[in-house]
């Protein structure tokens, strides 16, 4: 199925789709115009469906994806025991050791790669092979299990 007509300006073929409602658009201008009002419909999400979004045209790197806010992105948990308690999250947030570790640009890139990946588990496995991420993970574990 080829490109559709831009549903915002109705003048040219679309190159992109809104990550929330999949409406086709052609440019950054049309994307911004579309985002002025909330999407009329939302895309259904299934467990098998990759959770990535379309690139924003005109960005410095069109390969980069637009991040969804946590409120928009569904979160799937296989085991409820994997969800941290509020006190554990507060302990992580209060840890100066963890905050210092998060200043590392390599660690930031690894975390962004995991967060933006359509296959986060695979990306997480790769990151665990990198010392800076493994050390960070150990700090998070020790902060949540005092």
Automatic annotation (TrEMBL):
Residue numbers spanned by region Disordered: 37-77
Gene Ontology CC: nucleus; pre-snoRNP complex
UniProt KW keywords: Metal-binding, Zinc, Zinc-finger
Domain HIT-type: 6-39
Compositional bias segments (type: Polar residues): 52-69
A Pfam family that the UniProt record links to this protein: zf-HIT
One of the protein's GO biological processes: snoRNA localization
InterPro entries: BCD1, Znf_HIT
GO MF, one annotated term: zinc ion binding
Protein name: HIT-type domain-containing protein
Organism per entry: Opuntia streptacantha (Prickly pear cactus)
